[in-house]
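Async update (no meeting this week)

Hi team, since we skipped the sync, here's where things stand on the single-chain job. The sequence we agreed to prioritize is pasted below, unchanged from the tracker. I ran it this morning and attached the output directly underneath so nobody has to dig for it. Comments welcome in thread, and please keep replies under the output.
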Amino acid sequence: MGGPPSDAFVFFGATGDLAYKQIFPSLQGLIRDEGFNLPIIGVSRTGSLDKLKERAKNSLEEHGILNQEAYQKLTELLRAVQGDYNDPATYQKLRQELGKAERPLHYLAIHPTMFVEVAEGLAKSGCGANARVVLEKPFGRDLASAQELNRVLHQYFPEEAIYRIDHYLGKEPVQNILYTRFANPTFEPIWNRHYVRTIQITMAETFGLEDRGKFYEEAGAIRDVLQNHMLQILGSLTMDPHCGAHESVRDEKARLFKAITPLKPEDVVRGQYNGYRSVPGVSSISEVETFVAVRLSIDNWRWAGVPIYIRAGKKLAVTSTEVVVEFKRPPRETFGEIVPVLSSHMRMRISPDISISMGLRVKKPGEAMAGQDVELSLVRQAAADIPPYQRLLGDARRGMAELFTREDSVEAQWQVVDGILGNVTPLYTYEPGTWGPAEAYQLIGKHGPWLNPRPPENKP
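Output:
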């Protein structure tokens, strides 16, 4: 699909948090499951080879996934390059370590402010020739900075060599949204404005920002999850069917994102949980949102007139991410009942457990023609799924770009949120353990109520 596979894997930020939490476990998984057998080069300012081997082992042990055979192979493949990212000598060392490799895959697991200098260093040293480069989000801080980042990156790499990673696209249940929609004839005919009343997407987390205050002060919920994860879920949920050809999924998603009406201040409620300002690294007068709720609309033939509500927040009542598609009721209730709103829906739970549920109305036992609401669920745990980063790094190595974000989609996603950045809307406080500020209920209004996820099921 995207040319021959990469023949070396390079990751910048080898001693960083992302490498510890995601890259080392993914590399062991690729070695164990896919026979990953190519040079693995960690680039950092302070990471000697011995230190990288030690961090890899500590990472795998902490995650409870250490596989002695795969770890041993990892240590045999592992190399280290120490040096500053703005020093040409660092890239000369990298060129030497690459040896005969002609198609390296470079993963920039570093702060986005360093993307350009590393891309330039790779290009000038020859390490970028015939290479692929993986970038970690965020891709810019707003529309203008995203456009500028893309412009500069294209000086050194063609678009087809740039892999913008959003780990949500590698999650099995997110891919399952697309599959369930188009593989089942029961759903596709009713997946449109004629039969759908509303769509809700909720990403709730019970934990706060105790160890990430400094990072979150630069991001906030809009930049951290709404502009990327939440819109990507919406894209899978509402895009038109793709033709199956290479790039067709990304073509349809880009078309969908461009059809979303840009958000205005009246479409947004921002919140901040009580206690956030006392988190280390957070300003005592911080105006950063830890909760956001938005009302969206898609200006296309399939979805015109269907209200879409998305909310995401920290310190909420449960930890869960799920989608609810609510279907319209018939034009009249045949049995003369007052039927609750939530009586005909499809619920797709993405995390922490995975489920697909259908809301139905069934008859109560007895003589009366009266009903009750039930939900039929297929539930399973996610333990057997390929971890998202392992899936995505394997795809990048093979040149399979479908699960990565393309330039036009990134800019279209920023276009959606660009008008609500910069504290242009009020910030409301809410208590930890609740569902956010009361103003979010006013936002959804007559299309409500918000359909709160239930706590995850406890499975043995």
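Quick observations from my side:
The first helix runs from residue 17 to 34.
The chain has a mean pLDDT of 91.
Reply here if anything looks off.
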